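Quick question, first post here. What does this chain look like in 3D?
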Amino acid sequence: MSVLFTSISPDNPVKREDASALLSPLGLSVEQEDEEDYHTLLAAVHDCAETVASLPDYQPVPDLDRYPRQSIRRPSPEEQVLGQSWAHKFLIRGNPEGEFLAGKTVSVKDCIAVAGVPQLLGSDIIPSWTPVTDATVVTRVLDAGADIHGTSTCENYCHSTSSFTSAQGIVENPFAAGYSAGGSTSGGAALVTAGIVDITIGGDQGGSIRVPSALCGCVGLKPTYGLVPFSGIASGDAIDDHAGPLARNVLDVASCLDAIAGYDGIDDRCLGSPRHGSTSFATSVQAGTQRRLDGFKVGILKEGFDHAAVDPEVRSTVMAAVEKFADLGATVEEISIPDHYHGPAIWTIQQRVSGSMTLLGQAHGRRGLHMTEMERGRLPWTKEGFRRAFPSTKNVIINGLYLTSRFPDLYGKTVNIGRKLRDQYEEVFQTYDVVVMPTTPVVAPRHGARGLPVESLKPSMGLTINTAVFNVTGHPAMSIPVGFAPAKDDSTVKLPVGMQIVGGLWQESKVLRAGFAWEKNCNWKNGLDHS
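> Answer (accepted):
Ran it through. Tokens below.
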């Protein structure tokens, strides 16, 4: 339906030739005899846009009286830990009567909105912007009793699984300086592993919770797509967006999931999720019988272990960990899903096309909380801003523009094939409770350096071969630490190995149960001896 209009305002800036000028880059034009009418219609939509732009925005109003922000600041050198793990320090005390997270300390990834706290997004493409609202997960962890102590560093625009790309500085692996903490939830994983906070809320669009959890030696859960609201979190590709907790143990992850899960009335990703406050993940994993896995069926994903990129030391460490499931009463069998190998390529096309549209301000079609202050700050792109962007961000834009121009049907095809992959996994989960594999193919690599594009991207290449596919399918996937393996460049340096446990859609309870039982019966820091 056309925009309704009666007359064009006299100061309307639209010119007669603008319609043709807009079409020209596409090799299109309007007929000369139609030019005047399209000028009128374009002028009318401009007036419509001016009207909407003048209206007040509508974002949730945080309760600053109940949850005041104390001492917001960029951390001093003395306050920084593990390189540059903090983005901003502050204190917001949670509800003293909170249930799920009473007494817990939390950081949130610096792509998650906290009203009044400048957000850096790991970048210097634009100056920091300051949200006016709290993300749903922020409100919920405060209501659950946790104190938030700051925002933790994320990688540059969340476009890396390394931890040297943030414009604010490098995040060091807690087990060995000079090695990656993983990304893009780099600072949060380091803070949790080092015991500085109990829990971090991270974002995961290809492995950004699970990769740093694996490399740092903590527990990180990417829930089922839509279980946790993404409201107030900077988006990359809306169909890959997931938010979830990182902690030092499975119980804290389960408790945090109880606190943050459920539809918030805003994010359409969550329309199929349970009512907030109705889950009982923490209670379930603490049940007395949950230290055993009698009757449980665990599938060893052949393709997850056999990929050429998987280091033999990582493979053997995870396989030894898997064997412990049998000691706990589970049936453990090898399974095969050959299309698992296609997961990284499918994810790459989805992320590049949709990610570039998001970066260029062209994403649309979702009901949710849109952070208009951020969009005004970063758009339109400038030559100087693009020059400062990390190569991974530039690559997303270049790849996305190329793919949409040369392969116009490919994004839709990846969505269709991604659904096929989802259905293949769901068929497996009719028989098996969980499927396991290495989270990352290698332990933490050395930090890279910001240089030529390929050199800058190389430390992250291949890290998501077993993680990104589950952003495509939406299945819950959790990384737990299960041992150590030597660094690739120095056999005397021992670094954590993560095992990924994947469950059926909405079957977080099974994933958590498997992880909890393994954790309670094995000491991953001592060669898998009984704890």
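The chain has a mean pLDDT of 94.
The chain has two domains: 1-55, 70-345+411-526.
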